[in-house]
Structures are given as C-alpha cells and as structure tokens.
Specification:
With 135 residues, this protein is an alpha+beta fold. The chain contains 3 helices and 5 strands, in the order E-E-E-H-E-E-H-H. It is globular, with a radius of gyration of 18 Å.
Length: 135
C-alpha cells in the first residue's frame, strides 16, 4: 500500500534551445531562470541556487510579516540575507535577519524562532523525497 499524497502546488520548467534560459510557471506567475555567462548561459534570470535561496528568503520574510502583523508589532521592513556554502560533506545556508522597527530583544528572540517555522525552511530541513519519472 502506497503513501497518501495531497497535491499542494504545481510548477513547470521549460528549457528550449537558447542555452539554459528556462521559463518557470506556477499558477498565474512566470519567472525566468538561467545560468550566468561564465557557465554558458545568458544571465537573464537567477540560477537555480539563487532561486532556492530566494524561496527560503521570501518564505521567511512572509512568515515573519504574518506573525508581526498578528502581534501588531511596529516593524516597517524585514530583510533576510542568505548565503549558500559548500562544506566538506554537505551544504550550509546561513540566514541573517534584520528589522527596521521598534522591537525589544525578547521580540527579536521570538522572531528567530518563528523564522524556523516557515514552510520552506521545514521542507529543506525535513524529510523530503523527490521521485522522477518520464511523462
């Protein structure tokens, strides 16, 4: 008996003959991914690693904004800086948060905890499977 699956979202990536430029659609939205020129691309969009960091960064800031708004804290801006590192045996993402607003240390400490609850963070640090087939 197989595992139960519930579709959450779909996306499609299409790469044609133009070196590496890829059109990605999900729902009503479209973005372009590409490789930098030094890797044979035309640098017309973020590379896949940049998209991964963008996904984590945007999810983090949106999750924090939702929490901040619910608590009615005064925060004008949330910035999430991310850097991807290769280590000897794995990959490490460092995430640094900064806030423009009126926060005390206790609130900042709580926001550090909330950042780990963003859905993309949970996916990246959780048990994830990727199954590939041919259509």
């Amino acid at each position: 008996m197989g595992q139960q699956k519930e579709s959450v979202l779909t996306a499609r990536s299409v790469t044609k003959k133009q070196n590496y430029q890829t059109t990605i659609t999900s729902g009503n939205n479209t973005i372009i991914a590409d490789e930098p020129a030094d890797k044979g691309g035309a640098d017309t969009g973020m590379d896949p690693f940049g998209l991964l960091l963008a996904s984590l960064g945007s999810c983090t800031s949106i999750t924090l904004r939702m929490y901040i708004d619910r608590k009615m804290w005064i925060v004008d801006e949330i910035t999430v800086d991310l850097e991807l590192f290769r280590t000897d045996d794995s990959v490490l993402i460092e995430r640094m948060l900064s806030f423009k607003g009126e926060l005390i240390q206790e609130q900042i400490d709580r926001l550090l905890q909330i950042a780990d609850h963003c859905p993309i963070h949970k996916i990246l640090t959780g048990n994830i499977g990727i199954y590939t087939t041919v259509a």
